[in-house]
Amino acid sequence: MHSYVEDAYNSNAFHADCSNCFGLCCIALAFEASSDFPVDKGAGIPCKNLKNDFSCGIHKNLNLSGYTGCTVFDCLGAGQKVSQQTFGGISWKEQPQSALKMFQVLPVMQQLHEMLLYLTQAIQRGVDAQLAHALRKSRMAIETLTLASADVLLSVNLPEHRRQINELLVQVSDQVRLESGRFNKNQDRKKGPNFQGQDLIGKKFRGRDMKGSLFRGAYLIETDFKNADLRNSDFIGADLRNTDLTGADLRGSIFLTQMQLNSAQGDCRTKLPGVLAKPAHWRAVGLL
How far apart, in whole angstroms, are the C-alpha atoms of residue 60 and residue 141? Predict the structure, then answer.
């Protein structure tokens, strides 16, 4: 069984490893026929494309088959954690009585991993000592939960944990966004613009200086950030579906997830924080 204690804060721990998962996202999660999926599927029902070895039968042709939602989804490492840690590497096929509980634990673990990722990103930004101590304490508490039994995980009060962590993340955001290099008329540091919760669908910010912006919970669907400077911005909970990040600079930005990037558009010139990978579907410069 793989040990997660050693590499809990390694960025690889937040990347999906389907080879060590029992196809949980293909069973546990529900989806409806839409532009992202060609059919309806209920929670706990295996996708018709799931093979006996837990791999996907149409993985190379997901987009062509109408399963674009699968190319966007990322469990943040929760799938392999549940499969190998929580259930000790014993699959729901080998132990059918554990199937329902395993499927129920997946979304809980995914949310805990999301919190763990945010806390890790926050600590890596080198915030003040008092805040860093609180972040590490909170991260340890969440990590301990991810190593708990299935019954404990299913009893976790996720909203309360999110509330406590959010208070810390807001403080981190304020400190990071002050690093954006902006100054007021008195030459005091200031944060970038506040777009929290705003509807920016389809808005044009091409080539703009957006450093230190707050996009918390903002709707950025098809927003044009081509060649924009988005360094040290906060993207927690932002909707980046079809957002144009072509050539944009997101270095130093915080609380971005791989799933957000997977749903956006970009190219090889797009600059990302170190823990994130450029999605395979992003275009090369020569194809723009």
Answer: 39
CA distance 26 to 79: 10
CA distance 197 to 275: 25
The amino acid sitting at 49 is N
CA distance 172 to 183: 19
DSSP assignments along 196-233, one per residue: TT-B-TT-B-TT-B-TT-B-TT-B-TT-B-TT-B-TT-
DSSP 284: P
Cα separations (Å) of 10 from 15, 73, 270, 276?
10, 20, 23, 12
The number of C-alpha atoms within 13 Å of 5 and in the hemisphere containing its C-beta is 4
Nearest to residue 88, comparing CAs of 8, 177, 16, 20? Answer: 20
Q: What is the pLDDT of residues 174-232, one digit of tens each?
A: 999 988 766 565 556 678 899 999 999 999 999 999 999 999 999 999 999 999 999 99
Q: Which tokens in the block code for residue 199?
A: 């509807």
- For residues 245 and 71, what is the distance between their CA atoms, to the nearest angstrom? 18
Nearest-angstrom CA–CA distance, 165 and 137: 11
| DSSP line for 140-154 | HHHHHHHTS-HHHHH
Residue 163, C-beta contacts closer than 8 angstroms, at least 6 positions apart: none
Q: What distance lies between CA 131 and its chain's CA centroid? A: 23
Pairwise CA distance, residues 225 & 53, whole Å: 41
CB neighbour list of residue 144: distance below 8 Å, 6 or more residues apart: none
